[in-house]
Specification:
The structure is a homodimer of 207-residue chains. With 207 residues, chain A is α/β, with parallel strands linked by helices. Chain A has a single domain, classed as 3-Layer(aba) Sandwich (Rossmann fold). Chain A has helices spanning 18-25, 58-66, 85-93, 104-114, 128-138, 143-157, 172-186, 192-204; strands at 6-11, 32-34, 38-39, 54-55, 70-76, 79-84, 97-101, 118-124, 165-168. In chain A, a hairpin with a 2-residue loop joins strand 5 (70-76) and strand 6 (79-84). The longest helix of chain A has 15 residues, at 143-157. The two termini of chain A are 21 Å apart. Chain A binds chain B through residues 1, 116, 124, 126-129, 154, 157-158, 160-161, 164-166, 168, 178, 181-182, 184-185, 188-190, 192, 195, 198-199, 201-203, 205-206, and chain B through 1, 116, 124, 126-129, 132, 154, 157-158, 160-161, 164-166, 168, 178, 181-182, 184-185, 188-190, 192, 195, 198-199, 201-203, 205-206.
């Protein structure tokens, strides 16, 4: 049976250490595809189209919504954000592990469409005050943005039970070892289509 | 956070190679507890109480049903079979991985009670004719028992999609490598209680 890919969702507050963790494990978990969101918000200084986001105009975006091309999308402060299904499907057909860095709502959407091959992980600092400290340490965010991040973290942590795994990132190496293990296993999920094909074939031979 | 245990359910037809696979991986997956069923059927030659089954009389068994002591139980051909919750809880409190070798119905029951910490795997030979060949090769079963096993396998394979993972055991070493990976990751599931405790503490510190 040639194995198609699988999905690993990573959620958790900005400041949880998702990027650092991914850097630790990325060489050990086989062929991956990082899902890149599409947005209609203006490109900012230092951002690259196709790296940080796919930048699209509103007309294109709305057409894609109509054509059912998004795995999930949302309108936030007047700007659209979404995940195109096409590159995800392509990566899955190539047997890749598709990585999503999305919020709790995004996780729900991905599970609705690709639940059979999805493994979800919520990554969090050990406490809210530790998160606050980390965000202050970065000092790239305004007080306003930081307050919004903390508020969102408080809201999201209430929904941790919707995830397959919870990783408390109090020690990077320890947390990376757990995420590495989960990511390697994530690939072993079999899609409903593959299961159906297998069951079909399993019985045919008996006739 | 001190980690309590988790559950790994193994299902699949007799002849799928579950025991051989477990023997291959058992030294690599940390502290385990094999759940042993309780039954009211008479002990057979070569069987040991507490190894193959816990043997109980019907009165005891019915009392345990009344006391809600079973994770799951069933009446099959006039004999009761069930899984006591108590030793499972004890093993979980000791942080062990509890292994169940149960059928599809048993998997449903375990998931209803312990779904948050349960990982389920269906193991099968590549085809029904291969299963037939393996059962014939063992030659320990009567034709009647073999027919019943094949019939049950046909029924159970229809419900493979209820499992987290499907392992096609066409090569023992390859299948063992996959099961080893899944078993190690299974332990990383966090119980709802642990999640609630964590969320509670996470917020308390902020005040």
């Amino acid at each position: 049976m040639s194995k198609s890919g699988a999905v690993l969702v990573l959620s958790g507050p900005s400041g949880a250490g998702k990027s650092s963790l991914l850097n630790e494990i990325i060489d050990d978990i086989g062929a991956c595809y990082f899902s890149i969101s599409t947005t209609t918000r203006p490109i900012r200084k230092g951002e690259k189209d196709g790296v940080h986001y796919h930048f699209a105009d509103e007309e294109e975006f709305k057409q894609d919504i109509e054509d059912n091309n998004f795995l999930e999308y949302a309108l936030v402060h007047g700007n659209y954000y979404g995940t195109s299904i096409k590159p995800v499907r392509e990566a899955l057909n190539e047997g890749k592990l598709v990585l999503f860095d999305i919020d709790v709502q995004g996780n729900t959407a991905v599970n609705n469409r690709l639940g059979d091959i999805t493994t979800s992980v919520f990554i969090t600092p050990p406490t809210l005050s530790e998160l606050k400290k980390r965000l202050e340490g970065r000092s790239t965010d305004s007080q306003e943005v930081m307050d919004a991040r903390l508020k969102m973290a408080k809201r999201e942590i209430q929904r941790v039970s919707e995830y397959d795994y919870l990783i408390i990132n109090d020690d990077l190496q320890r947390a990376a070892a757990i995420l590495r293990q989960i990511a390697i296993t994530a690939r072993m999920k079999t899609s409903s289509n593959e299961v159906n094909d297998f069951v079909q074939k399993w019985e045919d031979i008996e006739q």
